[in-house]
Amino acid sequence: MGKVIATASMSLDGYIAKHDDTIGRLFDWLQNGDVEFSTATPGMTVHLTPPSAAYWRRRAATLGAIVCGRTLFDFTDGWGGRHTKDVPVVVVTHSVPTDWVAAHPDAQVSFVTSGVEAAVARAQELAGDRVVEVTAGTIARQCLELGLLDEVAVDLVPVVMGQGRPFFGELSLDDALLGDPTLSIQGDRVTHLVFPVLR
What we know:
By secondary structure, the protein is α/β, with parallel strands linked by helices. The chain has helices at residues 50-62, 70-76, 98-103, 116-127, 138-145, and strands spanning 4-11, 15-17, 35-38, 45-48, 63-69, 89-92, 109-112, 131-135, 151-157, 165-166, 183-186, 191-196.
């Protein structure tokens, strides 16, 4: 099985979105370069600087599936049934949105109602030996607390938001210790960092 990695674009003060789930300036780095990437979403193209583009290529080449929560799924309307990164998505939820499922019969989206561990296991089945990416927030926190994460990847953006939704939120354990970065890439208005989770 591939690694399970929590990922997020994050402000300097640890936030991944505002309280209303908007992102402010956190994703400006996706449009500040000359290297163009098309995504699986029609009409959505990113423009990265060469360092960020190299990092993006490396992540895309190893990605096999994504795990997210219902909040992100609802906010994006399930990416119209096909995630921007063009991999299967597993959504942790208390109830399956049956109307959405009926309206998107070809969607690469699975819904798991039996918890985060089951969702990660399902994503690993789909991903095989490729990486399972866990989106930040409540789901990432639960994965960290359950010992399911191998790494944490942060796209650190030089903006201070003051308040909002934190990357992990309030942990039920004392501390979660990460190792020194195994990767650090300086982009333009972003620093890409990868930390191993120590067990």
